[in-house]
C-alpha cells in the first residue's frame, strides 16, 4: 500500500487511495490560546466537502464573536480575549452537515493533546497509525432533525483482506440503549439512527474491529469515541427557592444581601451554560427604582442606595420583591432565560426610642383596693414584631414601700400601672411616681433616650370607711373547763383606722358554735353563759373558737371581725368506761381466760390511766372467777372452774387516777355455751341465770336472820 494510505485522515488525504467522505475533512483542531483574538484576523482554515459541490453551504459558530468566511477561514468579529475552552463550528449544505471542534489550550496542553492522537515516527515528523484501523473521534450535534439514519463519520482500514468487514459494538449499539449507532460492514460508514440528547448521554465509547467471513477478528478492536455536541436547548433554572434575603436598615452601600444561583443542564464548558444575571423588576419602586444590584456573574445581590434611603420607618413597605433573570450564552440576546423572585426584607434596628404620649398621667384609687389603676401609652416607630419596639417600664422614684408595680401589655405595648399593696388614705392621700420606658433591645450607638422617655404619674387616694381592727387578731386565752357561768373570759380591743373620723364602736357575737359566750356591746368584755366543756364536739384539739364583730358608727357602718381561741384545761369530770361488756366461753373450755377488758377516759392525763380494776364482792359458797391487771389500761377475767351452760352477769368497777378519782361499775355479761364439733350453742333456755341464784340465796339469808325459828 502507498505510504500516504497509512497516515491519519486528520492530516493527510490521498485522493488516489481514499474515497470522498462528506463533512469536515478535519474534525478536531487544537490552537494555542493567544493573548487576544484580533478583529478580522484568520484563526485557522476549515475544509468542508459534501462530495457534491458544497451547494448552499452555511457555517454557524457557537461563539457569536466569530464567523466562518465562504473560503473556510475562521475570523474574529472583534478583539476577543476570553472565549472559553472550545469553539464548535456547524456546517450544513444541501447534501451534508457536520460539526468541527476547535479546542483552545495552552502550549503545554497542546503538545500533550497531540501526542495522544499521533505517534511520531522517526525524525520525519510523519504521523503513522499503530493499527490498520483508523477510527477518528466523531462529534455529533444533539437535537438533529430527521431524516435518519444519518451518516456521521467513517472508519477506514488499511488491510485489504478479501471478504473482511467491519463490526461495531458497545453501549448504543448492542448494549442499552441499543441501536443508536450502526456501521456499514463494507464501507465503514458510521451512522446515527435517532436524535441524541447530550444531557442524557454526552459520550459513547464504542469498539470497532475487522472480521473475516467466519466472524474471526482480523484487526482490532479499536476504540471509537463519539461525543455529543451540546446545543443550547436547556433554559437556566432556579431550583433552590424560595429565595428570601435580609438586610439591616441603614446598611452601607454595597452590603451583600443574598446570592441567587441558577442551574443550566447544558455543557458547562460552553457558553450554552455560561450564565449572566440581571434584575428585571423591583417592587415597590420607592424610594428608588434601583435599590439593589446583582453581580451578573456571581449572582450576589447588593444594596446600591445610601444608608439614609434604606430607612425602614420611611419606606412604603419593608419588603421588596426582585424578578431575577438568568440568561445563558453569557447573557447575549440569543441566550435562553429563566426567572425567579427574590424577596428582600429590610430588618429593623433600634434607631427610635419609645416616647410617652404625654408627660403626666393621672390616676385615682380607693384606699384598700389593689389592681390596675392606669395604662401609660407610648409611641415607637420601630418594628412591632421586634425587641426594638417592645417597651420595658421601670418606676424610678416615688415607690419606697413597693406599693406599685408596672408591667407591659404585650398586645398594645402600654404600661399597666398597678397597686399591689393596699394604700391607706390616713397615711398618704397623694402619691407621685416617676416612670421611665426603654426597649427590650439596646438602642444603636448614635441614639439615646431623651426626656420623652420619662413621665410622671399623679395618684389620688380616696378615703373609704374602713372597718374596725381587733388587736391582736386572733386573740388567745386559756381557761379551765367547768368554770362558773358568768365568768369573764377576755376584754377585746378594736380601733377604727379612720382616725380623721370620730366614730364609736359596738361589739356583737358573730359565731359561737356551742352558745357558751356573750360580749358587752360597749366595752367588749366577753363572759360565759354556759359551762365550758373540753370534751364537747365543738372543741378541737382542746381549743374552742368563736368570732366577734366590731361595728363603727359610719354611714354605712363598717365592720371588722375578730377571732377568739380559748384553750380549755382539763379537769377530772368524766368516769372511765369499760369494754367489751359481753364475753362467751365453752362449758368444757380448757383455757379459762375468758376475756381481756380495756378502759378509756375522755379526760386528759393525769386524770385517766393507770386504771384500777376490781370485782364486786362475790356471794355464794365458792368463788367462780377472778380479775387480773395486765397493764395500766387492761385487765383479764379468768374462770376458776368450768361452769354450766348459762348466762352470768359479773359486776366490775374501774377507777381512774384523777384527784379526786372517779369510779364506774359496769356489768360484764358472760355467756357459757355448749360447744360441739366447732359449733357454739349459747341458748340459755334450760340454764339458770347466776344472778337470780345469787338473789334467792341473799333473800334466804335475810329471812334466816329475821326469823331464827326457821
UniProtKB/TrEMBL annotation:
Subunit structure comment from the entry: By contrast to classical cadherins, homodimerization in trans is not mediated by cadherin EC1 domain strand-swapping, but instead through a homophilic adhesive interface which joins two elongated EC1-EC2 domains through a region near their Ca2+-binding sites to form a tetrahedral, X-like shape.
Protein role: Cadherins are calcium-dependent cell adhesion proteins. They preferentially interact with themselves in a homophilic manner in connecting cells; cadherins may thus contribute to the sorting of heterogeneous cell types. May act as a negative regulator of neural cell growth.
Domain Cadherin: 165-238, 239-356, 357-470, 471-578, 577-688
Ranges in coiled-coil conformation: none
Annotated organism of origin: Columba livia (Rock dove)
Any one GO cellular component localisation term in the record: catenin complex
Signal peptide (residue range): 1-20
Domain of life: Eukaryota
Alphabetized Pfam families for the sequence: Cadherin (PF00028), Cadherin_pro (PF08758)
Gene3D superfamilies for this protein: Cadherins (2.60.40.60)
Record's protein name: Cadherin-13
Membrane topology: Lipid-anchor; GPI-anchor
GO biological process: adherens junction organization; calcium-dependent cell-cell adhesion via plasma membrane cell adhesion molecules; cell migration; cell morphogenesis; cell-cell adhesion mediated by cadherin; cell-cell junction assembly; homophilic cell adhesion via plasma membrane adhesion molecules
InterPro entries noted in UniProt: Cadherin, Cadherin-like_dom, Cadherin-like_sf, Cadherin_CS, Cadherin_pro_dom
Listed GO MF terms: beta-catenin binding; cadherin binding; calcium ion binding
Encoding gene (name): CDH13
